[in-house]
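Late entry, written up from scratch paper. The run itself happened at the end of the previous shift, but nothing got recorded in the book at the time, so transcribing now.
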Amino acid sequence: AAGFLLVATAAQAQYGMSPVLKGIGGGATLSDFSNPDSDNRWGGTAGLFVAKATYATLTSLEVNWIQKGGKDVRVDYIEIPVTFGGVGRTRNGVGRARLYGGVSVAFPISCKSERVSLLCEGKQTEWGAPFGLMVGRWSGSDRFIGVDVRYTIPFSRAFEGGAINPYNQTWQFRVFIAR
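Output as recorded:
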């Protein structure tokens, strides 16, 4: 995906077309487990992204730190989502809205369980499908500032091998800035 973005950008740059955006983002997560259900927990997320914009689409590659889990379990991940989506513009061209979907992989880096310490031994890589809405605007200094709300549909379980094999259900609420 990164190679695609670089090659496409070099080709488009020769003709003065679509920019590549680079930026940072961060915010909060709200997650819980299903199967079995758990109470939710708040966490954090922060990361970097690169995106290829055309007139009506935006394709992005991100690298994020994200906290997921349930009330008594917190798992930190490095998550790498690739998203694709259509972009709508305001009449003056300053505002943007983007509906998107994609695929993500999340690698666990730490786990803390207040009740079931053995649960963390079974943590594993997670796959999912992020879907979201991003809204923002260009500022006068060629910066794009926006907000993003995303839900990730889990494809794989957070833990394996124990009596509990839950799926992480995660919402992200982020603010981002790009150039």
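The chain has a mean pLDDT of 86.
(Scratch paper discarded after transcription.)
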